[in-house]
Amino acid sequence: xxxxxxxxxxxxxxxxxxxxxxxxxxxxxxxxxxxxxxxxxxxxxxxxxxxxxxxxxxxxxxxxxxxxxxxxxxxxxxxxxxxxxxxxxxxxxxxxxxxxxxxxxxxxxxxxxxxxxxxxxxxxxxxxxxxxxxxxxxxxxxxxxxxxxxxxxxxxxxxxxxxxxxxxxxxxxxxxxxxxxxxxxxxxxxxxxxxxxxxxxxxxxxxxxxxxxxxxxxxxxxxxxxxxxxx
Length: 231
What we know:
mainly alpha
């Protein structure tokens, strides 16, 4: 769910980074049972959305590239620019190669409708992946904060984007994105009768959701927008 609009795992927790798009995390049903037992709002909210589930989002580099393309513009505009970007890069839209992005100069990238800054961000992202500065094969053994540290070292990726990546791509179960406006709004409406909520209050609500804070966050988003989040 876009930050502007309403989005650490224990060792041994299965990682979804190698799963294909459309795969639902194995922990989902257990998480729903856990949340329904511990939280009165979740107990009422979860049944409203039936079989709707979080689904993984394909290739890591492509997912992050798409998040950069979509920053600060509408969903419709982002899709248009993304389609043109894929066209100049070449290759399948769900699995772009970092080397193919690096092979393009800035004017070519900008011809897809990218700003100069986004073109720089995408090139920096590609360099990080091509140089092995992000340790994709090791992510399964790394905790959430270590992965966030790697990602925010890339220009154009902040903590919120990294947390969305943990939730939607790696499908980590216990992420609480306190910078997400939708999460804060949903907590305000669901737990505080619409009164303003501080980060500390939101964190306290989220503590009761552990170790499945990502799942609870997903249902909070659903309470605001019934359409499944597709990040």
